[in-house]
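Memo to structure team: turn this sequence into structure tokens by end of day. - J.P.
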Amino acid sequence: MKKLVCMSVLMWLFWLWVPPAKAPEASLKPIYILEQKALHPWGVDDPILEAFIWFESRWEPDAKNKVTGARGILQILPSMIDEVNRILLKEYKIKWLKYTWKDAWDPEKSIEIWYLVQTYHNPDYDVQRACQIWFGMGTQWDGMTWVEYFIGLSDKLKLIT
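Reply from structure team:
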């Protein structure tokens, strides 16, 4: 019981200490919108994130890539879980792993992972950079690169100037 109370207090203190990641202010960046707004239960109010979720999983929380093993609404890989935990340790000095491979199935945790990684590696919230981060800079098993990924994602976005 003592251990449970201590862990609860530690988690409460953690959430007080580390502010949740947020989408950048739209007024500071170009505004991207979906050509057709998707219906979803997670209250996502970020058109860029909406496009990534649609492109990765078509909003299916139980989506799984049979080749890579990527899972969830954002098709998260174990390397992304490792990266977000590394960011938490480096930036916030958190010495325990906050996210696990199982968390890739949870839409809310997947969205937290998205914002932690994008905030750290892509502070300007640039769509091309987001594609490079999320897809990777290499070549996928089927020959696709981040450039083709960006083109495919761009088909779902319309830039408003």
